[in-house]
Write a structure and sequence with these properties.
- This protein is α+β, with helices and mostly antiparallel strands and 189 residues long.
- 41% of the residues lie in helices and 25% in strands.
- It is built from 5 helices and 8 strands, in the order E-E-E-E-E-E-E-H-H-E-H-H-H.
- It has a 5-stranded antiparallel β-sheet with strand order 1-2-5-4-3, with no helix packed on it. It has a 3-stranded mixed β-sheet with strand order 7-6-8.
- The longest helix is centred in the last third of the chain and has 23 residues.
Length: 189
């Protein structure tokens, strides 16, 4: 897969990083023309989204540019290492949110939050367990059913009792959040 890599520097902190855009994203999805102009640019926490207009047919489409995370290795449960793959996280979140009132943009925001956090950590290796915990935390904020679905696969529940305990923890978390909406904590836990 060909891509365009650019060396960037943060305007705020001066940190240098590499970004990439896949070349197939530059082609118009309707007429496959490579001639387009940028109509709008949206700054995201995890990168940049550009709205492009095809000069051939006038179709508008989006491209995204994200920091390059190819150098980050994920350490699996069995000790095996593989390159970080944002698509795997998105697919797990998508399956957990299937038939739930969660938009693709919300799912993308979950993956962006995880990716940004990993990028900011500056680590060269991260345990898969940490990524799974981060995904669970984000899903817990987003949708209860998606959270339970993801947790049931991620934590590999062997019986109903362990799943019931996790649901009990989720209910307690929701009750605590509801109380904090009414009366904020003065002293954190």
């Amino acid at each position: 897969m060909e891509s365009v890599r650019r060396r960037r520097e943060c305007n705020d902190c001066g940190r240098r990083f590499t970004t990439y855009e896949r070349l197939e994203q530059f082609t118009c999805p309707r007429c496959e023309s490579i001639e387009s102009r940028i109509v709008a640019i949206e700054q995201l926490k995890s990168g940049v989204r550009r709205v492009r207009e095809c000069l051939g047919c006038g179709n508008r489409f989006s491209t995204s540019e994200r920091p390059d995370m190819d150098k980050l290795l994920v350490v699996k449960r069995n000790g095996q290492r593989e390159e970080f793959n944002r698509t795997k996280i998105f697919e797990g979140v998508r399956l957990a949110c299937l038939n739930r009132p969660v938009s693709a943009r919300q799912m993308e925001a979950v993956v962006d939050a995880i990716s940004s956090s990993l990028l900011e950590s500056g680590l060269s290796e991260v345990p898969a367990r940490r990524i799974g915990d981060m995904a669970m935390e984000e899903l817990r904020k987003l949708d209860d059913v998606a959270y339970v679905r993801f947790a049931s696969v991620y934590r590999r529940f062997e019986d109903v009792d362990s799943m019931a305990r996790m649901i009990g923890e989720l209910k307690k978390y929701r009750e605590t959040r509801a109380l904090e909406d009414v009366q904020p904590r003065l002293i954190p836990d």
